[in-house]
Amino acid sequence: MSWEEPPVDEEPLPEPPPPPRRRSRDPLARFFPNMPHPWRVALDWVLTIAGAILIVLALKAWVVNPYRIPSSSMEPTLHCARPAAGCEASFSDRVLACRICLHFGAPKRFDIVVFNTPPLAAVKCGEGGTFVKRLIGLPGETLKEDDKGNIWVEEPGGHTFTELNEPFIQLQRRLSDASHFGKSWHVPEGDYFFMGDNRAESCDSREWGSVPRKNLIGTVFFVYWPPTRIGFR
User: What's the pLDDT at 136?
Assistant: First the structure.
């Protein structure tokens, strides 16, 4: 007789787990699973464009803002366009002003600054609003202009004047501004004194006074148009 082993009940193998469900890379599909695809595409475009606009507005409000040079007061450092009086170029310079820079420190002498003018500027210049000039006088200083158009500065508490070295001012433009020869100005604490590089064509702090710190918008650091003028300033 042969011995037969009793049959062994074989347990069925467990079914493999279903493959993991791939998550959609489209976030709108996760939030709006029942929305028709064409509608999701349209909504995606709307949100993308709105986001881009918000980013641009935020950059302009807090970081960098573009400006156009409308007059010849800063020639030849910054050009305006002919046929306006005194302009040397066919296209006005477009510049970028760093707004956020003023949050990290006070502007320095000779910086080119964008600022809102005091009310008296509209009376003296025939227009006010936003100007672009060079920072010449710092808070507490006294300035005077000699009979050759040179600017002299006395620091707060000082007793002597020192002549400023201004290589960006052309001699001819300096001498043509005889209307301010012999005059002097004091800059109050917290204010700044601005002048144009084209002195005879610049209606500036010599006419309407200094500018409060709160009026400063940003420091000009780059010309982005026209192409032949692109570069840092």
Answer: 98
